[in-house]
Amino acid sequence: MCCGVQEWHKYLTIFEAMKPIKFAVIDVETTGGYASGHRVTEVGIAVTDGQTILAEYQTFVNPQCEIPHFITTLTGITNQMVANAPLFAEVAEEIKSYLDNAVFVAHNVDFDFSFIRNEMKLAGIDFRARKLCTVRYARGLLKDQPKFGLARLAQRFNIVNKNPHRALSDALTTAQLLHRLIEIDGGKIIHKKITKLATEIKIPAALPPEKFHDLPHAPGVYFFYGANGKPLYIGKAKDLKARVTTHFRQAETARGQAFMRNIVNIETYQTGSELLALIKEDVEIRKYWPPHNSAQKRANVSFHIITYLDQNKGIRLGVKKARIAADAIKTFQTLRAAKSWLHEQVKLYELLPTFCMMPEVWYDYELPSLEEHNERIGLLLEELNASQGEFLILEKGRKNIEKGFVWVKSGSVTAMGFAPRNIEWNNMDALMEYAEHVYTSPTLEQVVSTYLISALQPEVIVLNQ
């Protein structure tokens, strides 16, 4: 009997804490990945008090554009299915009635919220709401969970999603997940996970509000500008709107608030993928050196291995200390690493040590003539180039008609850009039209190296020599 009373008090505490809150759990199906360039095709809503589903809503929406084939393959929603559906503007007030006075809940909430907010805006409605992300909520509670996709979490709690990638079925699955998380939480952290209204985000006073509200939910690079028109800070993001939002919510210190007061404009550069965003961020930071990008400034000098001819036409290897070196054959972050590599090459190719910044007493082979040394340097360079090669990494583009690319030569990033999907990727002359030249850096070389190791199936095209 005692255990029953304790159990009763446990649930009474949980749901008394939740009682004032109404949740509108929502899922949208769309024509693409970001709200500024795509439209909603289906809306599903499950209204709950945190314990019981109170109402359900579903509607198809005519997006007034074609649904890409790969989206139809994923969701099963065809152009025919939405041809006679209402426009979003025609059901906007009905949808809003389910969302009014409720916490807007979704799995990866910023995605769904951005689409609903954009569609409401096109319908002439300024929609705002408190938000709760079940991904972030789950991360805070389930420390042993390796992945937080909806399917994985549903499997953990034995929740059956009858029709995955369809709006109402996903919304109901997310609602049931919310119930389980609230039960585990016991009302301890949920209030911390519910965001404030968008109007309560501390948007810098000198920044026009629409500059913030119109930010895209897409990968890319963002620029905070000061009154002098120069960048104060440059950053990259998987989701530009979400990342900038964290800046404005975290400005609690005096230093942070002073920084926010100086922001008068935001610009973004969409990249389609996080890899392109990482590369573009590094390129732009090293171009402008904004005052608030301290990380790159601390590591802005590298040690480059270069070749040069002396007055007797002997080929020498040296170390050049600089931010960038277009003539570098290898780049290292420390002088010790650069000299260690040089030492290994002198031993391997039996070079003239003094021509490579090394003392002769370290080596016990017969020293070569100047001609032999030059020939061996040539062989080193040939083999270095052959081992590192020249290739493209292809990534998702900003639009369906293009792909992003990273051009790598001898281990260094030399260019990036976006080209039509149907381009002849081995045609380097054609590719140059779309290429933005990049000065490599140790950061970029590490980014590419890490990507090639960690990516499940990187799309790589080896270029003809």
Keywords:
16 strands; GIY-YIG endonuclease; alpha+beta; 465 residues; Nucleotidyltransferase, domain 5; 5-stranded antiparallel sheet
What does this structure look like?
The protein is α+β, with helices and mostly antiparallel strands and 465 residues long. The chain has 4 domains: 2-193, Ribonuclease H-like superfamily/Ribonuclease H (Nucleotidyltransferase, domain 5); 201-293, GIY-YIG endonuclease, CATH 3.40.1440; 302-388, no CATH class; 390-462, no CATH class. 40% of the residues lie in helices and 22% in strands. A 5-stranded mixed beta sheet has the order 3-2-1-4-5, sandwiched between helices. A 5-stranded antiparallel beta sheet has the order 15-14-13-12-16. The chain starts with a helix and ends with a strand. Residues 11-18 have low confidence and may be disordered.
CATH superfamily placement of the largest domain: Ribonuclease H-like superfamily/Ribonuclease H
Largest sheet: 5 strands, mixed
Residues in helices, as a percent range = 40-55%
Q: How many DSSP E strands?
A: 16
> Looking at the structure, what is the overall shape?
elongated
Outline the fold blueprint.
Blueprint: H1 2-18, E1 23-30, E2 40-48, E3 53-60, H2 69-75, H3 79-83, H4 88-99, E4 103-106, H5 109-122, E5 131-133, H6 134-141, H7 150-156, H8 167-185, H9 190-193, H10 209-213, E6 220-225, E7 231-237, H11 240-249, H12 254-261, E8 265-270, H13 274-288, H14 294-298, E9 302-309, E10 315-322, E11 330-332, H15 335-349, H16 370-388, E12 390-396, E13 402-409, E14 412-420, H17 428-432, E15 435-437, H18 442-454, E16 459-462
Parallel strand pairs: 1-4, 4-5
Antiparallel strand pairs: 1-2, 2-3, 6-7, 6-8, 9-10, 9-11, 12-13, 12-16, 13-14, 14-15
Helix pairs in contact: 6-8, 13-18
